[in-house]
Design goal:
Helix content: 25-40%
Bound molecules: adenosine-5'-diphosphate, magnesium ion
Number of strands: 10
Strand order of the largest sheet: 6-7-8-3-9-10
Number of domains: 1
Structural class: alpha/beta
Radius of gyration: 19 Å
Length: 258
C-alpha cells in the first residue's frame, strides 16, 4: 500500500506562523542568585504585551536577555525564539539588526551628543545604502516629536526627563524594529508626562508596532495591553488579557493599590 502524508504536512507548514517572540523556560542567574526561574511567554505580531511586577521581580533581566545585553557573572538558560529562531546569546547589534529594539530602563541617552546624533545612533545597524530611508525616518521622528526637531542640534542632556524618554523611543524607532522593548518608560516622569508617553505607545501600537512593555504603573500599562503577565520573583504567576488582569482581585490588591 502506498500512502503519503505529504499533503497534510505541507498544509500545516504553510499555515504555521511562529509567534514573533516566544520565551521558553528562561532561567537567569547573577552569580549564585537566581533572577528568573523558568519564564515562558509569547508576543504575537501586532500585540502590545505587558509584564507587570514589583521592583526586583526580574523584568529588566527579561528585557536585557532578549536584547542580548551582556553582564558580568550572568548565566542564561532557555530559549528566546524570534520568529522561531533561537537568538539567545547572540550579540546585541545582531539582535537589533534582526529587528528588536530596546528602550532601556533609565533611557540611557548620550547627554553630550546632540538630539540628532542620539537618533542617528539608533540607525547604526542599518545599511549605508538605506541613507535616504534613514533621513526620511529622521524627519518622521521630528514630525512626531516636534520638540526633538526644535532641539536637534542641542546636546540631549538639556532635554527634560519626558523629552529624553521621547528621544529614547525615537532612537529605538530609527532601526525600524519589528519588536519594540520598553522598560519602564514612566520611570521618574511627572504624571502628566507619563500620560503623554502612554499616548505615544498607544499610537505606535495602533500603527502596527509590536510592543513588549514592562511597567510599574500597572494601571496605565494594563489599559493599553492586549495581553499581560504578572512576574513575581522570577516567575510568571498570572496571565490574561489586559482587561482581565485589571479586574483580577490579586492584581488589584498587589499592583493597583485597591
Ligand atoms: N547585574 C546584576 N548583578 C547582580 N544581580 C542583579 C543584576 N541585575 C539584576 N540583579 C538582581 O536580579 C533581580 C532582578 O532584577 P531586575 O531584572 O533588574 O528586576 P526589575 O527590573 O523587575 O526591578 C534583582 O534581585 C536584582 O537585584
Ligand atoms: Mg527594572
Amino acid at each position: 500500500m502506498t500512502y503519503t502524508q505529504e499533503w497534510p504536512i505541507e498544509t500545516m507548514q504553510e499555515q504555521y506562523e511562529p509567534p514573533l517572540l516566544e520565551i521558553v523556560d528562561l532561567r537567569v542567574w547573577y552569580g549564585a542568585a537566581t533572577a528568573l526561574k523558568g519564564v515562558d511567554f509569547i508576543v504575537e505580531r501586532g500585540e502590545v504585551v505587558v509584564i507587570i511586577g514589583s521592583n526586583g521581580a526580574g523584568q529588566t533581566t527579561i528585557m536585557k536577555t532578549i536584547s542580548g545585553v551582556v553582564e558580568l557573572r550572568k548565566t542564561v538558560e532557555g530559549q528566546v525564539l524570534f520568529y522561531g529562531t533561537d537568538i539567545a546569546g547572540q550579540q546585541t547589534h545582531k539582535i537589533q539588526q534582526l529587528g528588536i529594539s530596546h528602550v532601556p530602563e533609565g533611557r540611557r541617552i548620550f547627554p553630550e551628543s546632540t538630539v540628532e546624533e542620539n537618533l542617528m545612533l539608533g540607525a547604526y545597524t542599518r545599511f549605508k545604502r538605506e541613507r535616504g530611508a534613514i533621513a526620511g525616518d529622521l524627519d518622521a521622528i521630528f514630525d512626531r516629536f516636534p520638540v526633538l526637531g526644535e532641539r536637534r542640534k542641542r546636546p540631549a542632556g538639556y532635554l527634560s526627563g519626558g523629552e529624553q524618554q521621547m528621544l529614547a523611543i525615537g532612537r529605538a524607532l530609527m532601526s525600524r524594529p519589528f519588536l519594540l522593548l520598553l522598560d519602564e518608560p514612566s520611570l521618574g516622569l511627572a504624571p502628566l508626562i507619563v500620560a503623554d508617553v502612554f499616548e505615544i505607545i498607544k499610537e505606535l501600537a495602533a500603527g502596527g508596532t509590536t510592543i513588549l512593555l514592562v511597567e510599574q504603573m500597572a494601571n496605565m500599562a494594563l489599559e493599553i495591553a492586549d495581553r499581560a503577565y504578572v512576574l513575581e520573583t522570577g516567575e510568571i504567576t498570572l496571565e490574561g488579557t489586559g482587561a482581565q488582569l485589571l479586574e483580577d482581585p490579586r492584581v488589584k490588591e498587589a499592583y493597583l493599590g485597591a
